[in-house]
Amino acid sequence: MQGKKVCKIVQDLLPNYIEKLTSDETNEYIEEHLKECAECTSVLNDMQKNIETKNIKMDEREVKYIKKYNKKFNIIRNILIIIVLLIIIIIGRKTFILSSLENKAQEHQNGQNYYLKLESYSEGKMTITEAYYKEEKSLVEITTYSKGVGEIKQTLYKSGEEIFSLIDNGDTKVFQNMGDISVKPVAFTSNSIFGNLYMALTTSIDKVKLDGKECYIIKDGNTEKFIDADTGLAIKLIDNENNRTTDYQYKYNTVKDTDVEKPDTTGYKVIE
Fold this sequence. Notes:
This protein has 272 residues and is α+β, with helices and mostly antiparallel strands. The chain has a domain at 114-186 and 233-271. The chain has 4 helices and 12 strands. It has a 12-stranded mixed β-sheet. A hairpin with a 2-residue loop joins strand 1 and strand 2 (125-134). It starts with a helix and ends with a strand. The mean pLDDT is 86.
């Protein structure tokens, strides 16, 4: 009976003994008993086998989990890499298009002989601007039609250092010296790579046809900008937020001396 009690005590201690949680004195007591007790030794061996089996199964589950996790991680990583590459390709393509259009536009903006016409329409108002440039001379005629106001004509003239403005609203005519006038061909692109990169990030760019002409359309949510694919210059602007539309026309090397003649200032009141 006394032996059974000792075996019971030892078997209760075996789990902690296996986990190395018992003291040195207890270990010595257990080991001395195991040398003389086949039953407790058998129980110890069974416990160790069960623990090994559990560890193997646990290891297998961990391996399977890690493999599953790695597989999902690799899939997500590959998808993210593909997305990033696509974004880089798309943004890079748009930036290249915008920079190419900007280079073309600069060539035309630096021209010495050109005719430019802008027609802008909004609710109750229409503005037509015609500009003639020939070397050092330029003549710009701006006509505005507004509800309740009528027609207003403004002429801007420049020849060397002589720069002035003529305004005729039907009732009064005003002459005024100007500091400078500048109505150049319009480009919707930026003159810097960073500006075009920002535009590429914030807008959509597609190639379309407008009145049979190859062009690019840039959309940013509120506006639609049409750019001539050959010249890089603006050909149409649709401002949805302000309900305004502007059309652009250009002609090069067609302006004659008679187109930039000094306008008659007779009858205009001089304003300092």
